[in-house]
Amino acid sequence: MPGFSTLLPRPVSVTEVPGSCAWPAPVTVRAAPGLPAEGYRLAITPHGVTLSAADPAGEYYGRQTLRQLAGPDAFRAASIHSGLRLPCGIVEDHPRLGWRGCLLDVARHFRTKAEVLRFVDLLAAHKLNVLNLHLTDDQGWRIEVPRFPRLTSVGGWRRSSMVGRHDGPERDGRPHGGFYTTADLREIVAYAAERAITVVPEIDLPGHSRAAIAAYPELGPDPAADWQVWTSWGVSTSLLEPSESTVDFFRTVFDHLLDIFPSPVIGLGGDEVPGATEAHGRFVRTIADHLIARGRTPLGWDEVLDTGALPPMVIGAWRDSAYGARAAELGHDVVLCPEDRLYLDHRQSDHPDEPIPVGYLHTLEDVYGYEPDLAGPRLRGIQAQLWSEHLDSARRVDYAAFPRLCAFAEVAWSEGPRDFAEFLPRLREHHLPRLDALGVEYRPLAGPHPWQTRPGVPGRLR
Ligand code: ACM
User: CB neighbours (10 Å) of residue 18?
Assistant: First the structure.
């Protein structure tokens, strides 16, 4: 029977009592409004469990903790073992940060609806509570917008893709695409909500927009040009043309987005806009104002701080923590997602077999050692990022995300101090078996399985 010391993320406090309880156990749920938000208290006796929770999220997390205590087999899709037991005792727990996010880029490589739902389950098992869904980029547009069908009929697929990080003309010649219908997205939102997860959608503008421009060339800088959904990775210099008609177009797109996603926070991008003019900045601010007028808070990447005076927003500080501090000083809320610490598409070792190694080296220990360097009421939380240029399947997403996302989840949920020497055996002996039972193809601690390598496909290190 796994003990309380196996839990991940580590709870705030545990009192062990001799004895055990058969699992599945009767669970009596009590409302406990005095507990912290998302908090719960479990009292496990030989006769059953009392789960007190501040709110539905707290109740959900209490049940996740029980599942971990019941052992890895409790993570299988069907019950194939009898005799599972829970240890008796009391767990009192709540998260330290209110935004425990993960960005999933479904624009560069589409993830099917079923794959997104599975990913939601994996986030929920780690008590993460925000799925930041990156729906549009130069290489693909993934959300159906009924008024503008070419966004998905044209923008929803590309002919070919750059092979690894090879900047030459080489392409794989393989069409790639897909998009979500309105009903698909409503289903994802509802499924996530049942698991205490808010889906924060992002439509990225005025850069990262070549799929939209390919669909409607009048949105771009040269309507007469032969625009294609981009087959390269990198930062495109082709921006949306910030004309009144483009602004109107995107007001309509965002209104559709708001109709689907109840999230109080809505992403509008704003990152990596080489050659942006004053008018591009006004475009971003106009869309931000539009979201605010409809009762939402815009989320922009930290480059938006350079566009001039902004209404209060949430800033995703990704380039450098100094941008987080600057955003907070300017009165914005902040989500820290530093590229040099929390980009999980970046390589996880210097092992020569690491598949398509890109970016900074972020080992499991590095991620576990991350500590937000901003405090105070402006810090909403932290977010790990899974950009998908080189994650072309759900299996590759598993490999990049896990087990580093387990370490991230503990940083987001549990107060320090943290000791990697304590975490590592807990992960290896108790949590990886849970992932095995769930069917997660994580990166083995010793390095990739042979079939997880990508010999001959170039990466690019930083
Ligand atoms: C980003 O990585 N461009 C937010």
Answer: 8
Neighbour-count burial of 421, counting CB atoms closer than 10 A to its CB (0-12 exposed, 13-18 middle, 19+ buried): exposed
Residue 407 tokens read as 């370490």
Residues forming a β-bridge with 137: 140
| pLDDT beyond 90 at 238 | yes
366 lines ligand 1 (CB under 6 A): no
How much distance in Å is there from the Cα of 210 to the middle of ligand 1? 16
What is the domain-level CATH number for residue 12? Answer: 3.30.379.10
For helices 404-413 and 394-401, the axis angle rounded to 10 degrees is: 50
**Do β-strands 333-336 and 48-53 pair in parallel, antiparallel, or remain unpaired?**
unpaired
- Reply yes or no on whether the pLDDT at 251 is more than 90: yes
In terms of C-beta density within 10 A (0-12 exposed, 13-18 middle, 19 or more buried), how is residue 339 classed? middle
Same domain, 138 and 74: no
Dist. CA 434–CA 428, nearest whole Å? 10
Q: How much is the mean pLDDT over the chain?
A: 97
Whether residue 353 sits in one domain with residue 241: yes
The whole-number average pLDDT for the span 207-212 is: 98
**Percent of the chain's residues with pLDDT above 70:** 100
pLDDT at 2: 86
Identify which of 233, 271, 383 to mutate to test ligand 1's pocket (most ligand atoms within 8 A of the CB).
271
Question: What is the spatial distance between Cα 233 and Cα 417, in angstroms, rounded to a whole number?
Answer: 39
Do both 231 and 266 map to the same domain?
Answer: yes
Q: Read off the CATH number of the domain in which 319 is found.
A: 3.20.20.80
Residues 77 and 180 in one domain: no
The closest residue, in CA terms, to atom 1 on ligand 1 is 271
- CB of 323 within 6 A of ligand 1: the answer is no
Which uninterrupted H or E stretch holds 106?
none
Cis peptide before 403 (omega within 30 of 0): yes
Is the pLDDT confidence value at 321 over 90? Answer: no
Instruction: Show which of 93, 124, 154 is a domain's final residue.
Output: 93
How many structural domains does the chain have? 2
Of the candidates 59, 93, 127, which is a domain's last residue?
Answer: 93
DSSP string covering 57-82, please? HHHHHHHHHHHHHH-GGGGSSS----
Range of the domain at 425: 99-461
**pLDDT computed for residue 244 by the predictor:** 98
Asked whether residue 124 falls in the same domain as residue 271, the answer is yes
Residue 396 and residue 271 in one domain: yes
For residue 316, what pLDDT is reported? 98
Q: Find out whether 288 and 310 touch, Cβ atoms under 8 Å.
A: yes
User: Are 222 and 358 found together in one domain?
Assistant: yes
Q: Do 72 and 121 have their domain in common? A: no
